[in-house]
Structure formats: structure tokens, C-alpha cells
Design a protein that fits this description.
The chain is an alpha+beta fold and 282 residues long. Helix content is 38%, strand content 21%. It is built from five helices and ten strands, in the order αααββββββββββαα. Strand 1 and strand 2 form a beta hairpin. The longest helix is centred in the N-terminal third of the chain and has 34 residues. The chain is elongated. The structure holds copper (II) ion. The site of copper (II) ion has 7 residues, from loops.
């Protein structure tokens, strides 16, 4: 009886946890308290990752339920009391063929969408924009080679400086900015040790290895802020080098690029100023 009461308590606790989590199943761009499952998708790859994950959940639930039922049948019907003289059967060709072929069919069923997803992730479409992300102890630097090659550092915002609504440990001072619905090619490297560039809602996670350029891609399907974190243990402040991507429309992106270029001193001085400077003294 104590076993049953303990089981009931466990079930009730699990039930209440699930109920309290129901309102916060997942968030887009950042985790939510008591979240279950993955963060919501904001890219085609992540949408497929979630679909594949849900499909696998059904497969694994069916398999474990089937095994559980077999175990219960064996415990009830074939224990020493219920079945004092056990069968001496050692071979059953039909059964052996079935338990070989059925797992093969299950594995092939899983392999097809798995490889499709792998190709989607690794077969990069033609990029509209390239951004280079460099992991450093302990912050990220972003470089925009297609837009004047400006570069800036992106550091965590300390707890005391957070504004209302900004998530703790995930907010940075300078966000990586990209246009919406454009294929962004991300080059990833490390400056000192191995870091990892990961943004869950885009379905990307790739190591930033010193001396090597890794690459990945994403196409953000909605505007907003999307947070990620360094996902490779890289030293004492590994937990304090978040990644924040701001997805904006094309016009806002063009304006932002101009501002960044100006900040980096990449815009040439207006011609009139040059002419005045170069004019002979009167
Ligand atoms: Cu790191």
C-alpha cells in the first residue's frame, strides 16, 4: 500500500507541475518559466526541427508503451505462482523475423525525415547577407563583410542595468541585426578558445573554433528579438556571453547599416568638404 500511495503522490506532483507549466509551453526567441519542449520556431529549419521532435515523441511513446504492456503481461501471467511449469521454447522463427523487421521499418521511417532535415540544415541556400560572429572570452564580435566590413562587440548587460522587459543573462548592449525573410549566412570562429554560437528559435548551434571558420545559415521569418547563448564551456564567464539577434525590416536594416558605418568611420567625407580642404589658400 505505501508503494501505491507514493506512486499516487508522484503522479499528483507531476500533474500539478504540468498544469502550472501549461501557460508557458514555449517562448519565441527566449525561454519561459516552466517551459516544456523547445522554443517556438522563427525559421524554416527550426519549424522542421520541432516537427521532427514531435514525430519522435510519438514513436518513442508507442515503443515504451508496447514494452511496458509486454512487461506487465509477463509479470502477471508468467510469474512462478501463475505459471509453475514454464515453457521450454527457445526458438520461434515467425517471432524472430518480426522482431528483426519491425525495428528496421521503424528506423527507416525515422531516417527519412532525419536526413531530409540534415540536408535542409547543411545545404545552404544562396545567402542574401553574410555576418561573421567571433566568440571571445567572454563576448561576441560581429562583422558585416557585405556592408562595408564594420565590426562591433556585443557584451552582456549587467543585472543592475536591465530595463523593464529585458531578460536577465540574455540581453546585450549591441545586438546582431539582420533583415527579416532574408537568408543570413553566418561565419563562426573563435578568437581564443572554443565557443558555440546558438540561437534556439532559429535552430542553429555551431562551434566557434579558433583558427577555423564554421558556417551555418538561418532565415528569420518574423521581426523581433531572438536570444541565444554560448553553448560550449569556454571559461569562467561562459554563462555571461549571450547572443541577441534583432530581426528588422529591410528599411530599418539599411538605416542601421548606415549608422554602424558612420560609427566605424567608414563613410567618406562629403565631396564639398574635400574640395574646400584641397583648395589653395587665398
Ligand atoms: Cu563561450
Amino acid at each position: 500500500m505505501p508503494v501505491f500511495s507514493r506512486l499516487t503522490t508522484c503522479a499528483l506532483t507531476a500533474g500539478s507541475l504540468l498544469a502550472s507549466a501549461a501557460a508557458a509551453f514555449a517562448g519565441v526567441g527566449q525561454p519561459s518559466p516552466w517551459q516544456l519542449g523547445l522554443q517556438d520556431a522563427a525559421s524554416p529549419v527550426m519549424a522542421d526541427v520541432i516537427a521532427f521532435h514531435n514525430f519522435l515523441l510519438w514513436v518513442i511513446t508507442a515503443i515504451t508503451t508496447f514494452v511496458l504492456i509486454l512487461l506487465v503481461i509477463i509479470i502477471v501471467r508468467f510469474n512462478a505462482r501463475a505459471n509453475p511449469t514454464p515453457s521450454r521454447t527457445t526458438h520461434n522463427s515467425v517471432l524472430e523475423v518480426i522482431w528483426t523487421i519491425v525495428p528496421v521499418i521503424i528506423l527507416v521511417t525515422i531516417a527519412v525525415p532525419s536526413f531530409r532535415l540534415l540536408f535542409l540544415q547543411l545545404d545552404e541556400p544562396k545567402p542574401d547577407l553574410t555576418v561573421k560572429a567571433t566568440g571571445k572570452q567572454w563576448y561576441w564580435s560581429y562583422n558585416y563583410p557585405d556592408n562595408g566590413n564594420f565590426e562591433f562587440d556585443s557584451l552582456i548587460v549587467a543585472d543592475k542595468d536591465l530595463k523593464a522587459g529585458q531578460p536577465r543573462l540574455l540581453t546585450v548592449d549591441n545586438e546582431m541585426v539582420v533583415p527579416v525573410n532574408k537568408v543570413v549566412h553566418v561565419l563562426v570562429t573563435g578568437a581564443d578558445v572554443i565557443h558555440s554560437f546558438a540561437v534556439p528559435s532559429f535552430g542553429i548551434k555551431i562551434d566557434a573554433v579558433p583558427g577555423r571558420i564554421n558556417d551555418t545559415w538561418f532565415k528569420a521569418t518574423s521581426e523581433g528579438l531572438f536570444h541565444g547563448q554560448c553553448s560550449e564551456l569556454c571559461g569562467k564567464d561562459h554563462a555571461f556571453m549571450p547572443i541577441t539577434v534583432r530581426v528588422v525590416n529591410d528599411a530599418d536594416f539599411a538605416t542601421w547599416v548606415e549608422t554602424e558605418k558612420k560609427n566605424a568611420g567608414l563613410l567618406s567625407a562629403p565631396p564639398i568638404a574635400l574640395a574646400t580642404a584641397g583648395a589653395p589658400a587665398q
